[in-house]
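Reviewers of the previous submission asked for a worked example of the structure-prediction workflow described in the proposal, so we include one complete record here. The input consisted solely of the amino acid sequence. No template or homolog information was supplied to the procedure at any stage.
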Amino acid sequence: MVKISVVVPAFNEEKLLGVCLESVRTAFASFPGTELELIVCDNNSTDGTARAAAAAGALVVFEPLNMISLARNSGAGAASGEWLLFIDADSVLSAATLGAALGLMRGGGCVGGGALIAFERPAPPAWGRALTGLWNLISRVFRLAAGSFLFCRRDAFVWVGGFSPLLYAAEELALSRALRRRGLAKGLAFEIITSAPHVSSGRKFRLYKVADLFWDAFKLLLRPFSSVKDPSRLRVFYEGRR
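From that input alone, the workflow returned the following structure tokens.
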């Protein structure tokens, strides 16, 4: 039996967290030979996120600094599974995506991986679909996992030091690269699931105008190394719109 610790970082996610956690339990019910450990890291929320997580039967841990990499690391620090699966609180785990990940885990040749991303209905606007298609191409070609779905061996996660505590964004890209290097040294692959994309809410496409997103993207491109370490330059991630 394989034990998987599902880690969900959550900042003011009371509205969507219950649906996310229920999807996790439903997906795992399709694989009776798999043990689930469900962990939610309350990332200093001001709403009922922690209560919603506890009501859903999750182990709740707390991270006081509002930083996604630290929230994921705090959740992973409480995990006991051989494998870690990180998903976002505004996403939904399907049995198909979980099954594809389980196949890689049980195959013995994988250090970790991710999945292509899709969005629930209503679909994002055309520009949002174009951006998603571009990301999925980058993810597939360069073997980079999206933060909304990333899985890895727990021993490999510990060995590479987890998510960088210096990065407020792009921490999943840095971890993907670190895990790929670790896997290469051990003869293990870092795989991206293409057959069953992971479904996210796509709420940023509804909450922000295209000009807002492209302006933030321009600032990131202008000063990428300093911007990912400065939450004031990452409005889309840290402004807190829900």
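The longest strand covers residues 189-200. We consider this example representative of the routine output the project will generate in years two and three.
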